[in-house]
């Protein structure tokens, strides 16, 4: 769990933590999730809402017969409750997360969404200490449903960090603007919009050489990795702020 969302999580007694190795906090107490139950918990929590039992079983145990997959799901739910982790409900048709229980991923995505749609509060304007949260979404898991959610989170975070950097820059918080942009660049170095936001933060602070260095480093990277040049708009912006980029 990243420090960024501790304030959000402290307001809630129950939370499923998926950034890193899954665990659960209930009533202020942390519970270890049994190894054989982690995928069921993560699958249902990531899907949100009511998940059809047959769909869950078939997705989590696709290689065996349906009856065995259904048995595995029942066993996992039973062992989860036996470990004191009472966050999932199930009936004959569906399995779902109990009401009033959230995930750290939801808190992260809500923060990103507030920034992107323009409803961010002053508390949201702090540069998050999220430390590779994208890579930390169920690290080492390569199921298709995990990879999809990891990529969706990555895109959300990139957009949010770029917006955050621009808004911090507009209020004169240049150091924080640079950090937010650098976080975006660290996630995806080949993303031109992130590199441009970083250069703009340097320019706003009067660090034209840093802006030029950002462009040159990015240009060399795209030449080497993709065989293409940065956009003429990016080049012109940096040139207009300082020495020409040759």
Q: Just name the CATH architecture of the largest domain.
A: Alpha Horseshoe
What is the percent of helical residues? Answer: 55-70%
Rough outline: elongated
Integer-rounded radius of gyration: 22 Å
> How would you spell out the order of helices and strands?
HEEEHEHHEEEHHHHHH
Query: In terms of structural class, how would the helical and strand content be classed?
Result: alpha+beta
Number of domains: 2
The main pleated sheet reads as: 4 strands, mixed
Estimated share of beta-strand residues: 5-15%
Helical run tally: 10
Low-pLDDT segments, ≥5 res? 1-10
Looking across the biggest beta sheet, what order are the strands in? 3-2-1-7
The beta-strand count equals: 7
Distance between the termini: 44 Å
Give the CATH topology of the largest domain: Serine Threonine Protein Phosphatase 5, Tetratricopeptide repeat
Mean pLDDT: 90
Please identify the top-level CATH class of the largest domain.
Mainly Alpha
């Amino acid at each position: 769990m990243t420090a960024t969302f501790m304030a959000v999580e402290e307001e809630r007694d129950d939370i499923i933590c998926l950034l890193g190795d899954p665990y659960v906090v209930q009533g202020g107490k942390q519970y270890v999730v049994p190894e054989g139950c982690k995928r069921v918990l993560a699958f249902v929590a990531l899907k949100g809402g009511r998940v059809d039992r047959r769909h869950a079983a078939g997705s989590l145990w696709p290689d065996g017969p349906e009856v065995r997959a259904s048995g595995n799901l029942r066993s996992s739910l039973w062992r989860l409750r036996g470990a004191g982790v009472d966050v999932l409900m199930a009936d004959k048709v569906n399995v779902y997360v109990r009401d009033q229980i959230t995930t750290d991923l939801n808190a992260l995505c809500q923060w990103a969404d507030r920034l992107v749609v323009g409803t961010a509060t002053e508390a949201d304007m702090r540069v998050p200490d999220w430390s590779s949260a994208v890579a930390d979404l169920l690290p080492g898991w390569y199921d298709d449903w995990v990879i999809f959610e990891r990529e969706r989170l990555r895109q959300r975070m990139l957009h949010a960090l770029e917006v955050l950097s621009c808004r911090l820059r507009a209020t004169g918080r240049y150091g924080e603007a640079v950090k937010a942009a650098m976080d975006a660049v660290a996630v995806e170095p080949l993303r031109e919009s992130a590199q441009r936001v970083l250069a703009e933060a340097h320019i706003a602070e009067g660090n034209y050489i840093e802006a030029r260095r950002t462009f040159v480093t990015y240009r060399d990277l795209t030449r080497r990795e993709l065989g293409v040049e940065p956009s003429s708009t990016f080049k012109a912006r940096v040139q207009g702020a300082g020495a020409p980029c040759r």
